[in-house]
Amino acid sequence: MKPPATAPSSPTSPAASRAAIRAVLFDLDDTLWAIEPVLVRAEGLLYEWLRANAPRVAAAHTAATLRERRMALMQSDPLYRIDLWKLRHAALTEVFAEHGEDVARVDEAMALFSEARSTVDLFADVEPALQKLKRTLTLGSVSNGFADLERIGLAAHFGVSIAAHRFGRAKPDAAIFHAACDALGVAPAETVYVGDDLQLDVQGAQQAGLRAVWMNRFGRVLPQGIVPDAVCRDLHELADWLDAQAAQT
Question: Which end of the chain is more exposed for a tag (fewer CB within 10 A), N or C?
Answer without folding.
Answer: N
